[in-house]
Amino acid sequence: MLLSPDAALAANIIWDGGDGKWVTADNWSDHAVPGSGDDVRITIDVTVTIGSGESGDIGNGTFYVCGSSYNCALSITGGGTLTTGNSYVGGTMSTGTVTVDGAGSSWNLGSATLYFGDGSNAGAGVLNITDGGKVSTTSAIVAGGGSHTGTINIGAGAAAGILDAPGITGSNGTTALNFNHTATNLSPYYFTRDGLSNGTGVALNGKINLTNTARYTVLTGTDTRTDGANTITAGTTLQIGNGGIDLNAQTKALSEAFLSGAAYLNQAQDFAATQGLTAALLASGTAEGTCPRLQGFAAIGYGKMRHNTGSHIDVDGYTLLAGLAGTQDTNAGELTAAAFIEHGKGDYPRTNPGAHAALTPRKC
């Protein structure tokens, strides 16, 4: 059997130093920096760094960040780069963390798959992509395997980075996608493969909990999640698709309360201008051409409206109007004047669970 030069030289390389640089040969088990085709493991409590002007390249070799019962971290900063094959972050009873931070900093997996939080027992994998850092793969990102937790943080309190991947798939464990960046509504963050508004969206599949503590995030990829909650901090906005706004329950209840109150007051004004005015004209005699006189009048109405708010609200209410009306001849013609009091009550039940309000606006 013949082996290619790369296959013949490939090795299983294990980190055996303390905190330190990837490019330092003495930090590795064979005292040589891993090369193309090598399988690489960081399996102890350390932080490995790839910094400015530095790079790591194991080609299609498999990369492991943490095995069992350790907390391991890899930090790619200052324009450093890493190229790997299939990669596993976080193992059984361990926490693996990879941070890609800063413009020019990148982790490129080619066509390989990236697994976060994968194993048979509780453990965690964390990916932080911040301040222009970039993680790229043409394959899938799979998180939360087994009973593990897989977490992807976009921004982590700083400017956002780029996740250049077709999609994220949440597995049987717990998968969290957190947006916590500094983009504003004037310059929002688009969760696309290049971070641009016209870029290809990153699809969300399976079980994923989505959290937005950032100022303004826009999702344009396909959302086929089968389970998972959306948590949006008050004062922030998460836009899903080309116009839908998803707000947290408290913020949404407040906005719907204002909408419902305005809708009901508008209904009351319309009632006064139509049925109320007609009743006044009939009472004063103008509508039938009879002699002018002061006359009492009353009208009652009931309305029901539905307003779409992402979910929807049904506004039900009644209005009672009563007053006096009379007609006076003037040089310009007949003038009908009326004084009235209008009273009403509106109620709206929200379709979202856990919130209900009754509004009692009055108008005189």
Record keyword descriptors for this entry.
364 residues, mainly beta, 9-stranded parallel β-sheet, 2 helices
Describe it for me?
By secondary structure, the chain is mostly beta strands. The protein contains 2 helices and 31 strands. The chain has helices spanning 5-9, 249-284, and strands spanning 12-14, 20-21, 39-42, 47-50, 55-57, 63-65, 71-77, 81-83, 87-89, 95-101, 106-108, 114-116, 124-130, 134-136, 141-143, 149-154, 162-164, 167-170, 174-179, 189-191, 203-207, 209-212, 216-219, 223-227, 230-232, 237-240, 244-246, 295-308, 312-330, 333-349, 356-359. The chain has a 9-stranded parallel β-sheet, with no helix packed on it. The protein is rod-shaped, with a radius of gyration of 32 Å.
Distance between the termini: 96 Å
Q: What structural class is derived from the secondary structure elements?
A: mainly beta
Q: State the shape.
A: rod-shaped
Report the count of strand segments. Answer: 31
What are the segments in which pLDDT stays under 50 over at least 5 consecutive residues? 1-8, 243-252, 350-364
Side-by-side strand order of the widest sheet: 1-3-6-9-12-15-18-21-24
Number of helices: 2
What does the largest sheet look like? Answer: 9 strands, parallel
Strand content: 35-45%
Helix content: 10-25%
- Mean pLDDT reading: 80
* Radius of gyration over all CA atoms, rounded: 32 Å
